[in-house]
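User: Please predict structures.

Assistant: First:
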Amino acid sequence: MRAIWTGAIGFGLVNIPVRIFTATQESTIDLDMLDKDDLANIRYARINADTGKEVPWANIIKGYKLNDEYIPVTDKDFEQVNPKKSKLIEIEEFMDIDAIDSTYYETPYYLEPSKGGEKAYVLLREALKESGKIAVGQFVMRTKENLCILKPQGDMLLLQKIRYAEEIRSYEDLNIPSDITIKPAELKMAQALIRQLSPKKTSITKYKDTYDQELMKIIEAKAKGKKVKQPQFKLVHNKTKDLMAQLKASLEPKPKIKKAS
């Protein structure tokens, strides 16, 4: 893996040199855009709005429109905003992990200690484990300021980008029910269903993305000239509005499907 950011963690007066690595990867099939008439590949061109000519990447810069006039913004301008945050993940405070709602969570990254930072890295990791806390900090990566948390994950420190409060939209305009009464028997039955779907041993790793595998089968079948049968699915709503009856039916054991011999 190749590091996407190099700098340090600011832990009080201790600076821990680290490198950031991407922790996730896309699992979707890479599809190209084609012209449906001749299946020719569609390419995007960077066109100058005034001349109509294509502009090479080397000539493209960023800019901000101010008073109907574009002001160019260079890499040096980004660095001048806060050069410290471009090289330092400054720990601002520590808090309990459940103090942050899951709505705030964004992208995870792996943190690796750079040469000379191994002991301080392990010290912070073990201190977080012992205290049961997470560290909250800010840093700049790719010309954008990021809010993040640091937390131990096994032998590693994980950096998780989190959203700023102003990035979370309000749900006040949504029609969320608040005056519906749930009967104790209904709640008890719902809890029974939760228990039934709560195995003693489980792991999120057992869930696999099978959609792309099925899509690939269709693509390969079409490549061989085979006609792909369209499967049918219709969402059927329960005829009864009785919650108890629906929950009771959900708890009934499902018939076992016999395997073909």
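Second:
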Amino acid sequence: MNRQSFSDEFTFGLPGRTCLTPKEIAFGLSRSRRDFMRTTAGLALGAALECSSPFVRGEAARKKRKTIVITFGGGARDQETFAPEGQENIPHLINELAPQSSFFTHVTNQGILGHYVATASLTTGVYETLNNFSAVPPEHPTIFEYFRKDLRRPASDTWVVAPSNGFNRIGESDCRAYGPGTGAAVILPKHLLSATASGTTEDFDHLLRDNYETPLYTPRLSGGEFELQQLESILRLSVADFMAHARTLSSPDELSVYIAKRLMQQEAPSLLWITMHDIDVAHSGAYSLYLEGIRRTDRLCAELWKTVQSEPEYAGNTTMFILPDFGRDSDFEPGGNGFQHHRTGDAASRTTWMMALGAGVRQGVVFDDPMQSVDLVPTLGAMLGFTPAESKGRPIKEFS
């Protein structure tokens, strides 16, 4: 099935594509994902299992539980992922992870469709309105601050690994009730690589590209980022080792996942947030590179899950969430550029999905009730035992 036939099928028998409302398109996307996951990955409809909670309760279980959030970043459409013609690009998600997961087909992002601001919204549970290319923190408290304050967790228990240098302020908010040093430390592997590769950056040009949307300026780094001298003291990784591994990795996301694995081995944080960004190469207009980014992200998600199973601190007590920050424009939206951008705010760019797997999660179940991306923070709060007081989202009922 090609992209044109997918759009034709997407009318669901209605008299012409132009007659569909955004709400109808969003529900159509959800239904298409549901049917695809049920027939291809063998998932059952979640409504049949509503009588029991998917998560193990109890204070002891909460103290031991680890949570990892992976943003399937850069935005990917169904045509290239969960539609029949896209399944070849996500074999690990479909064949390995989906059968172990609860899969949510209808996640809507009603906020600004920029990667930093959208990720900030995911971390706060509020649709943030900051400038996507500004070096400012989120306005509202982040999940990392709620987690540390309410549960009295040390700084070493929550971390962020992000590929884009513009994410350096994502770890903590500008909220006076919390203040500096109360959130998560942020590791920016590309920033570290730039600092260590002084005079030899030509060897790493493919890893150091900061943003494919080419903003007018790159924010100055300040506050919260992981410093070069911490490589050895925290990650037990010398600068030479870091450089050697960087030379063997093919993408910024590969480098981020490598650092995340080191962090899991050395610090074993209870709350780890990893942003992926390779898919955003779509802004360059190269469809083949966009597909390559999707396939790499699919593989890296599976690699991280295998790491969870192999690390004693994580095996058996970790819940992992995978979700995009948002999608990309459809091929037929006026003013859009299809896969290349996410500018129109149409249903294809706003309606995504979420996968949850691991400790306490019902395996092989698909849910198609609508939820919003800002629901993630209150859901994690209900799971882990903290109260996200300023979040505008609601706990997902399947996790309550």
